[in-house]
């Protein structure tokens, strides 16, 4: 039995105080500090770069029109005077709502819903012209549900 006692004494548990502090530092505190430094570095880099953009398109600047296009705003006409791209036109009362996900607005025209022109626009805010009689110029797109789907580039208020 004396050998058992010696083995038991050799297999003593290490003291908990110093190892717990070391385990806490390597297991929790160090990764937390690294994550915090990475987050702050990303935020700082983004802030720094946002101040340094010298008119680079799409980074910290607002682009009102494509280069080389005439912009019409104010009065009764809005949008781009790009007759090469926006060669199709239609007239009607502008109302909100597309058809089954196609278009954000539509033109109410004589002949009922089958004659509506469904509209979307990345150039003109159509919601500001709802309820008005307008003429629109745009580019026709193929559609699954809409009889006529147009991307509007220019709008003229008729009355």
Short description:
With 159 residues, the protein is an alpha+beta fold.
How many angstroms does the end-to-end distance come to? Answer: 110 Å
- CATH architectural category of the largest domain: Beta Barrel
How many distinct helices?
2
What is the percentage of strand-forming residues?
A: 25-35%
As a whole number of angstroms, the C-alpha radius of gyration is 33 Å
Give the strand tally.
7
Task: Please write the CATH class name of the largest domain.
Answer: Mainly Beta
CATH fold-level topology of the largest domain: OB fold (Dihydrolipoamide Acetyltransferase, E2P)
Total count of domains: 2
Q: Low-confidence stretches at least 5 residues in length (pLDDT < 50)? A: 55-65
Largest sheet: 5 strands, mixed, barrel
Task: Explain what you see.
Keywords: Membrane, Transmembrane, Transmembrane helix. By secondary structure, the protein is of the alpha+beta class. The chain folds into 2 domains: about 1-50; about 70-155, OB fold (Dihydrolipoamide Acetyltransferase, E2P) (Beta Barrel), CATH 2.40.50. It contains 2 helices and 7 strands; from the N terminus they run ααβββββββ. It has a 5-stranded mixed beta barrel. The protein is elongated. Residues about 55-65 have low confidence and may be disordered.
